[in-house]
Specification:
Layout: E1 17-23, E2 32-38, H1 56-69, E3 72-78, H2 80-86, H3 88-101, E4 109-113, E5 125-128, H4 136-159, H5 165-168, H6 174-183
Parallel strand pairs: 1-4, 4-5
Antiparallel strand pairs: 1-2, 2-3
Helix pairs in contact: 1-4, 2-3
């Protein structure tokens, strides 16, 4: 263990290990984005941690460093329509599988943030609750997933600035829900999610889906 950051370099020693994490699971709009990262076994870093514990500027600095240092990394994306079709848990896992599919180096072991995963091919895996604050490769995956999803939401903000996705990234903030109430939904909203607080009613006459 690295004493400074208290993160582990690997879960299983002596194998090629990929860390996986996702971003956007709790959002009301946009995709869920996952990343898979294989780091060198001796990798350490004094700043790298769970993306939620790091400010935006440092997340993007870390992304550049991770991409330059990683043995392999990849991104997987499931859009809001896919989420509505199969549910957010399955979509999150599918996004991780897509990321793993795109790795240029095949992992021999996979570690995943959280407690839910579906077996990927015949590769053994381990789910780790709060793994993004315990293992470098999962923390790295959390950084990539978060920044790539933020980039997507910044692009979608240009199409629908009234929801202020550049700021709230489509999370269920009071501001976002108020905008849904006022302007209706967009083609990027997750229609199977509770888009409004129970005391509010959604007026589909104002919906961008018309």
């Amino acid at each position: 263990m690295n004493n400074y950051e208290s993160l582990f370099s690997f879960y299983k020693e002596g194998v090629i290990e990929a860390g996986c994490d996702e971003a956007g699971r709790g959002c009301l709009a946009g995709p869920v984005v996952a990343a898979a990262v294989i780091l060198p076994p001796d990798f350490t870093h004094t700043l790298l941690n769970d993306s939620k514990k790091i400010n935006e500027k440092n997340r993007y600095l870390l992304r550049k460093e991770i991409e330059e240092t990683a043995i392999s990394f990849a991104i997987g994306i499931i859009d809001n329509k896919g989420i509505d079709e199969i549910n957010i848990l399955k979509a999150s896992i599918m996004a991780m599988h897509k990321a793993l599919d795109s790795l240029k180096t095949i992992p021999e072991h996979i570690i995943i943030d959280g407690n839910k995963f579906l077996k990927y091919k015949k590769i053994p895996h381990q789910c780790i609750v709060k793994g993004d604050s315990k293992y470098y490769s999962i923390a790295a995956a959390s950084i990539l997933a978060k920044t790539y999803r933020d980039d997507i939401m910044l692009e979608l903000h240009q199409k629908h600035p009234e929801y202020n996705w550049k700021q709230n990234k489509a999370y269920p903030t009071k501001e976002h829900r108020q905008a849904i109430k006022e302007y209706g939904t967009t083609p990027y909203h997750r229609m199977t999610f509770r888009l409004l607080d129970e005391q509010l009613s959604l007026d589909f006459k104002n919906s961008h889906l018309k």
